[in-house]
Amino acid sequence: MSTVVSEVTEQAGPATKQETAVPLPLEGIKVVDFTQVFMGPSCTQLLGDYGADIIKVERPGAGDISRNSFPDKDGQDNPIFLSINRNKRSISVDTRTDEGRDVLRVLLADADVVVSNFRSGVMERMGFGYEDLKAQNPGIIWASGTGFGPDGPYSHKGGQDAIAQAYSGVMWRRESEDAKPGIYPTTLCDYITGMHLMQGILLALRTREAHGVGQKVEVTMYDSMLHLQMQEACMQLNRGYEVNWGAMPLSGVFETTDGAVCMVGGFTPDPLLRISKALGLEEDLTLRPEFATLEEQFKNKPALQAIFRERMATNSTEYWTGRLEEQGLLNAPVHTLEQALADAQTAANGMIVEAEHPVVGTVRMLNAPIRLSATPPSIRRTAPQLGEHNVEVLRENGFDDQTINRLQKLGVLR
Per the structure, how many domains does the chain have? Predict the structure, then answer.
């Protein structure tokens, strides 16, 4: 069975250790979690990190899709799954059977929250739609994350990160017109939508606390990616002009002799003058007519950035970041993920934690990023093995051993 951890380890740093006896914010909240892959599990893991009891419903045999995303020596207990499923208990129930759905109805009868990220209509077809559950449990918060929502021309489509990037316009917006559209290389849309789903659940819990009513919470990947572009969208809608922060003429990523530097030429007076000094140029580029104004800099960006690239290529990343710092210009070395995880700032922020898993041993993973001084996140258990808590959860919900044994023999619980 999964290891229960009373407190995060020393690697978490002082900001994340329990300092008082104040209960975690979501202690006592029961969540029945139908989510899988990343968007939904990232939401429910954070709910669990802050005290909620997360009962993860999985398919017998296969489990959450992320258990089998990549071939791994630890099989279904691989790092992809472990990274977003701590502080959860797993039950493996065959929802294709009447008996399996009956089991879940018992769990849902007194649940505070039910969360899913299936395609629109799947929960309803299983008999777990909002109106179905509300009739039995009026205060329930029914939370759903989908690709596009229950209505509209794309409502039948499955939600997937890259697909939402493409439909929403995010993928088309790139650093320069000659750059090809590409997939953002981490699950940006899944994560943002998961955080919106968590926010909706917290708002609904607050409403129920204040007014005694449950409600439906719905978020979509499509809406989340549009909302990510709120500044650019407002400019497009009202001025017909496309803002592209990645295409600003004084900003960019420039190769050095041993890596690359990201430079942001903004948020400071006379940025081009400062860049000229930092790069050790013999002339002040602001004196050239073709670079004298922001409008001219946009027009002549290729020529301007060619100067930056030529100079940056003559020395090391450390040298240029130092020079840019001296001029008060925003900059950073371009790190690999390995370098970022080993960075002293990562350690100072307590962003890497450890916990013991009964199958794979010590698991190192990222901490929750929300800092609460009185109620910091708590890793109470590592990610569960498939169906690990079948008996435990059913007993808690009133099933006797004879019934549990019968369900196991029928294959409803596996």
Answer: 2
